[in-house]
Amino acid sequence: MSIQHALALDGTSLSIEQVVMVARKHHPISLSSNAVAKVLHSREMVEEIIREEKVVYGITTGFGKFSDVMISQEDVSHLQENLIMSHACGMGEPYPTEVVRAMMILRINALSQGFSGIHLKTLQLLVEMCNRGVHPIIPQQGSLGASGDLAPLAHMVLVMLGKGEAEYQGKRMSGKDALQKANLTPVRLGAKEGLALINGTQAMTALLCLALYDARSLMENAEVIASLTVEALHGIPKAYDAQLHAVRPHPGQQESARRMLQHLANSERTTEQGEIRVQDAYSLRCIPQVHGATRDTLEYVWQTVTRECNSVTDNPILFSETGDVISGGNFHGQPMALVADFLAIAMSELANISERRTERLVNPQLSNLPAFLTPNGGLHSGFMIAQYVAASIVSENKVLCHPASVDSIPSSANQEDHVSMGTTAARKLRTVLANVRKVLAIEYICAGQAIEFSTGKLGEGTSKAYQRLRRIIPKLEEDRELHVDLALAEQILQEDILSTN
């Protein structure tokens, strides 16, 4: 794609979909002309502060507990480099490339609003690193999520200085070599620039953007799969009637009910009230109420994270129109911490209810289906242990859903005495989502197998889901290595929204 099609960042209009597009599809980016003008104006304000030797945090003073220590003009650049090197002390496995790229575009977008005092050439280097595929190696552990994501972002900036490590064209190398191979030149940071680059919530927000995008797909797939289970168990779709949900008008509940009916439209596998049973079990009857609550959570979190994508989150913030330099707490990750925990809890419930539906599929005491969905029970175990696996993963999620945001620990000699743990919350959210996908994959493959034991036309959405499954996974006639099937089903859910196939 040519540069004229690049996504022009202005700091105020970046969407979650665009973050994902840059992070995963390597879509090129640029700075809007308005952003360039604002960045230049903001830098002029920093230069004026230095000339007049004003006492301004992070420009003419040290950081954190050292905010009362004055720094001479000749040492300001050295101060910024020291800041990056000393703060780049993350540990653990590195973030995946997509997370690193999301962090980069989010930091660029925040700085492009012109409230941070960064040099234009410094910001443009970060833009070019993103466009040319120079991806800093950023360890996952080490952020308290309060003075921003200091450690992760410092590792990002190290590469801009020709230090640290980066991945370039699939190879891990020194930051210096990566820049050189990409025909880029390291920068020497001026006053305020190091602080501007690392004081923000971009690690946790990057994780949340990617998680939200994936969660939205999982939400849609959960309902198609649930609908397939309803058909396999000859469920009663009257429970999804719009009249019922109009009198409890939660938007997510109404939408989930509508989609269930849409997926089951024209099905010959469902039943009427009283035909086989008067009511279904909760895991079938209450799908709109449970899934709908997750839908509403997704919508709330989406709006909150979108705001954060277009926020200024460093400190201090320079207001060139008024001449004010305000030290505040926009770097504090509490808004992201809370929604990351909230989303993890909401998404885990999709897996909780899914596992219960899987149990109804494999347990002959709860259905008219063969035990464990095998035609030759005894000699063959069928999907007996698949349900064990779902139960195990669901229980793992219950541990992971303990909120990180309720924790805090003082840092920086008690100057930073309340922290968000937002990055921890966002990191474990991704693990929860991966687990939800696995549990849904198990229900998907079990529901597909259960369909084999009766006849009749499938619904509009469920027929597509069933056909997608059978294109790569045959029905189970006798025991085989089920882990292969489950991995393939999981891959389908990672790649596709079933209702569109």
UniProtKB/TrEMBL annotation:
<comment type="similarity">
    <text>Belongs to the PAL/histidase family.</text>
</comment>
<dbReference type="InterPro" id="IPR024083">
    <property type="entry name" value="Fumarase/histidase_N"/>
</dbReference>
<dbReference type="GO" id="GO:0005737">
    <property type="term" value="C:cytoplasm"/>
</dbReference>
<feature type="cross-link" description="5-imidazolinone (Ala-Gly)">
    <location>
        <begin position="146"/>
        <end position="148"/>
    </location>
</feature>
<keyword id="KW-0369">Histidine metabolism</keyword>
<dbReference type="InterPro" id="IPR001106">
    <property type="entry name" value="Aromatic_Lyase"/>
</dbReference>
<dbReference type="Pfam" id="PF00221">
    <property type="entry name" value="Lyase_aromatic"/>
</dbReference>
<dbReference type="InterPro" id="IPR008948">
    <property type="entry name" value="L-Aspartase-like"/>
</dbReference>
<dbReference type="InterPro" id="IPR022313">
    <property type="entry name" value="Phe/His_NH3-lyase_AS"/>
</dbReference>
<dbReference type="GO" id="GO:0019557">
    <property type="term" value="P:L-histidine catabolic process to glutamate and formate"/>
</dbReference>
<dbReference type="InterPro" id="IPR005921">
    <property type="entry name" value="HutH"/>
</dbReference>
<dbReference type="GO" id="GO:0004397">
    <property type="term" value="F:histidine ammonia-lyase activity"/>
</dbReference>
<protein>
    <recommendedName>
        <fullName>Histidine ammonia-lyase</fullName>
        <ecNumber>4.3.1.3</ecNumber>
    </recommendedName>
</protein>
<feature type="modified residue" description="2,3-didehydroalanine (Ser)">
    <location>
        <position position="147"/>
    </location>
</feature>
<dbReference type="GO" id="GO:0019556">
    <property type="term" value="P:L-histidine catabolic process to glutamate and formamide"/>
</dbReference>
<keyword id="KW-0963">Cytoplasm</keyword>
<comment type="pathway">
    <text>Amino-acid degradation; L-histidine degradation into L-glutamate; N-formimidoyl-L-glutamate from L-histidine: step 1/3.</text>
</comment>
<keyword id="KW-0456">Lyase</keyword>
